[in-house]
TrEMBL record:
Protein name: pancreatic elastase II
Swiss-Prot/TrEMBL catalytic activity: Preferential cleavage: Leu-|-Xaa, Met-|-Xaa and Phe-|-Xaa. Hydrolyzes elastin
SUPFAM superfamilies for this protein: Trypsin-like serine proteases (SSF50494)
Superkingdom of origin: Eukaryota
BP GO terms, sorted: proteolysis
Record GO terms (molecular function): serine-type endopeptidase activity
Matches recorded under InterPro entries: Peptidase_S1_Elastase_sf, Peptidase_S1_PA, Peptidase_S1_PA_chymotrypsin, Peptidase_S1A, Trypsin_dom, TRYPSIN_HIS, TRYPSIN_SER
Enzyme nomenclature, EC number: 3.4.21.71
Amino acid sequence: IMKLLILAFFIAGAYGCGLPTFPPILSRVVGGVDARPHSWPWQISLQYRGSTGAYYHTCGGTLISSQWVLTAAHCISSSRNTYRVYLGKQNLGVANEPSSIALSPAKIIVHENWDADRIRNDIALIKLEREVATTDTIIPACLPPSGKILANNAPCYVTGWGRLWTGGPIADNLQQALLLVVDYATCSQPDWWGSLVTQNMVCAGGNGQQASCNGDSGGPLNCQNIDGTWDVDGIVSFGSSLGCNYPKKPSVFTRVSAYISWINNVSHTYFQQQPNY
């Protein structure tokens, strides 16, 4: 019986949250590097359908359960009425990667207090048309505990198909970059981001070497727990128009731990509703 229990535990634990089958290679390389394929299996590509019928990558996002994706409110546009969520992607330039699946949204919920002028509450949830099975290449990230505050200089990784340098093209292969967290006391100083940053945000990078670029919008700031699991602690929100990695202008993320009750409320509200926009 003990053998059965142990086996059952490992089967249940094999696909929890935040534990990739193929762990990321955590380099300290300055700037973005190609990620090990499928080492960030919760990373999604949010794509919209253009006038020709072709789909275009517009933002990143994070799978947080079998049917819910977290992204930024500013990624959702009322003028783009057809989206799809691509899961299990590594190379955006490869049309039919065997590990990947594209699903339509059943529901898109933008935070009711999203303020585009002041970039507040930059968070949205996408309910997928159906539940997605967990595989080696599609695994949800863990949500942080409510109220979690990252320590200054905590090492986290931003991932996405964003621009690798200011004005550059978006990347084909998924990128990762190490960013060190900048605490609120520092980031809110007048010569940093000042009052534009609130305590519901996380700053990271801004050392003039590493930062996320605009193509990464909506994607995760991934931070590892002591037990090896990964939380999605941030959602890429905004950066400096001066460039991707300007000194004292770190990337700014929506702090996910400030919105746990909102995430829970939304996911429970739409738990059994039929698809509609």
